[in-house]
Amino acid sequence: MHRRLFTRALAVSVLVATAAAAGATTATAEAPTPAQTRLHATIDTILADSRLDGAQAGVVVVDATTGRTLYDRNGQRRLVPASNTKLLTSTAAMELLGPGHRFTTDVSTDGPRRGGLLSGDLYLRGGGDPTMLAADYDQLAGQVAAAGVRVVTGDLVADDTRYDRTRLGPDWTWDDEPYYYAAQVSALTVAPDTDYDAGTVIVHAEPGTRAGSRPKISMTPDNGWLRVDNRAQTVAEGETTISFEREHGGNTVVVTGQIAVGEATESDWVTVWEPTGYAADVFRSALRRHGVRVLGRTVLGRATPDTARPLARHDSMPLADLMVPFLKLSNNGHAEVLTKELGRVLSGSGTWAAGLSAIGEYAGDAGVDTGTLRQRDGSGLSRRNLVPPAQFVTLLSAVRAEPWFDTWYAALPVAGNPDRFVGGTLRSRMVGTPAAGNVHAKTGSLTGASGLSGYVTDADGRLLAFSIVLNNYLTSSVKGLEDQIAIALATYTEKGATTARMTVPTAPDSPRVPEGRECSWVKPALC
């Protein structure tokens, strides 16, 4: 299916594999140049940092144009890649679904109509759109009302059958489930904001008017799907310690802690249990606002009949545009929806297994040795994902020939750019260094696992593809070491180089982020 891409990638992968076979830290089968010797010494010094004592490190750097390997340490070692996994998912989606792919959410009925009376059920069918906002459901309800429907005698049926009913990814830990970066996946869902964190709700706590009173709790979007157990207190003065946590297995959000009179509203993002019901609740409220009454109950998970007639429709932004919030903010939900969408489109099965099979086939056609890796989900939350850094570099080198490459490359986080939808998860890293505005790369973070894989232009103007994957460290963060390597690559030159060691670059401090989280996963974002 992708013979064109495979042929181009084969030459690159052969060069990478030949160099890797020469040894863990050998640059090429040929004698290294003085510049490479200096680069080796610099990266080796960075990787000798005490924060990596007892840890595992894999680093590969390749000239993306020639395929010449400039550095390889443990390039074939399988390591937990965290969100670097999204490189596989996003490139497969761009190639197999196409940059113009859209998700459709529609409303239809199979019942007869007489005037404003609809004698039958109303079907809300999800197409997997992770960008559906409450405002979009309001527009759908407005279209239903504009069609003349005033009363529906039957049920409101929430059809999420485009994908299977497995809501959480393989191997995800149960205690991540209430947090927004591990939201349940459904073909019918709601996002509360334009970060498009589908399957979550933003809970707000506003201090009461006097000490001793309960804070006022509200949600965005307003809904009846979640219940609030408000145990928090308003105090006269003191530090705000408000906490929001949804109880596992249900939709009760427990609010605890304190907030002082006159303090700003405290907010946090919380996942919902069963996003299909959440979407149906938001849509039903929108229908009511537009003067459409549904007399029946809400039914979840029933398919829309083939005979149903359309009443309303909403199409998402194209996939090319979705790549920006997906990659810049390392949105896990987008990765998992795209995985299931790949399975649905290519094999008719909206499952993780079918989607991962499609991603694997694409990666193999791109020259990646899929026999050396294991991918268990689309986002990288699973700790059973294992990918050698050399395979990321093979993929990064191969996709440069794709017609959609420029769009995808621009969607990667850009080091040191303060705009959240440009710099993304790299916006506060490598600021004021030669890597700022230069490095385009995907970050990755789990407790004890970190990665940075992408591109940097060196001082001679060559585009380098690199992958850094670090595992099994005990310190809170090794991001500074990744940044030092990226800065060293940005200053790498072969002009007038001697064998003298390069100066090991320093990297500005990254923002303090809870262990194991991407900085954009902390709401409000720290980066």
Distance between the termini: 40 Å
The structure class reads: alpha/beta
Mean pLDDT: 92
Q: Assign a percent range to the helix content.
A: 25-40%
Shape: globular
Main sheet overview = 5 strands, antiparallel
- What does the radius of gyration come to? 25 Å
Low-confidence stretches: 1-28
In DSSP terms (H or I, runs of 4 or more residues), the helix count works out at: 12
Provide the spatial order of strands within the biggest beta sheet.
2-1-22-21-20
Residues in β-strands, percent: 15-25%
Q: How many strands?
A: 22
GO molecular function: serine-type D-Ala-D-Ala carboxypeptidase activity
Family: Belongs to the peptidase S13 family.
Organism: Micromonospora maritima
EC number: 3.4.16.4
Write the layout of secondary structure elements.
Blueprint: H1 3-20, H2 34-47, E1 56-63, E2 69-73, H3 86-96, E3 104-109, E4 113-114, E5 117-118, E6 122-125, H4 134-146, E7 151-152, E8 156-159, E9 200-206, E10 216-220, E11 227-230, E12 233-235, E13 243-246, E14 252-256, E15 258-260, E16 266-271, H5 275-289, E17 293-294, E18 298-300, E19 309-315, H6 319-328, H7 332-347, H8 352-365, H9 389-398, H10 405-411, H11 420-423, E20 440-446, E21 449-457, E22 463-471, H12 479-490
Parallel strand pairs: 5-7, 6-8, 7-17, 8-18, 11-14, 12-15
Antiparallel strand pairs: 1-2, 1-22, 3-6, 3-19, 4-5, 9-10, 9-16, 13-14, 20-21, 21-22
Helix pairs in contact: 1-9, 2-12, 3-6, 3-7, 3-8, 4-5, 6-10, 7-8
